[in-house]
Specification:
Layout lengths: L2 E3 L1 H8 L4 H13 L6 E4 H12 L4 H12 L3 E3 L3 H17 L5 H12 L3 E3 L3 H4 L7 E2 L5
Parallel strand pairs: 1-2, 1-4, 2-3, 4-5
Length: 139
């Protein structure tokens, strides 16, 4: 149980590009009690690291990312998540409604942990059966 933050939610927290989204997300995080787990998938960490690596301000952004990661539990993408990812991908392709490969991995990881995925990309993730979703970028 708990929450898993999608990459776009992390980007809103890390940057000043969407301050209204950032404020909504921070308010929601601050309202959680200490016994509620908030995870980042190792897949999300990979996406964030990729963004840092292609940035013009790589050194600064690397430091910011490392500090950001300290605030969350990093969930390792394991065999259970991998098996679910295969199921999710096959089902969505069979229905003719696939989602991106990284989103497939993130969705399966949240399912494997019985976590609610926090994303501003509800439209795409809503195609994944049984995936619990919340959008904290809007109040």
């Amino acid at each position: 149980m708990g929450y898993m933050l999608d990459t776009n939610i992390c980007i809103y927290l890390l940057t000043q590009r969407q301050p209204e989204y950032q404020q909504c997300i921070l308010s929601r995080l601050e309202s959680l009690t200490n016994d509620v787990a908030v995870y980042l998938s190792s897949v999300v960490v990979s996406e964030l690291s990729y963004g840092v690596r292609k940035s013009r301000w790589r050194k600064t952004n690397e430091t910011v990312l490392q500090e950001f990661l300290l605030d969350f539990q990093i969930a390792v993408f394991d065999q259970s998540a991998a098996m679910l990812a295969g199921d999710v991908r096959a089902r969505l392709e069979r229905l003719g409604h696939p989602i991106g490969p990284m989103d497939t991995l993130i969705a399966a990881h949240a399912l494997s942990l019985d976590a609610t995925l926090v994303t501003h990309n509800v439209g795409e993730f809503s195609r994944v059966r049984r995936l619990k979703l919340e959008d904290w970028a809007v109040s």
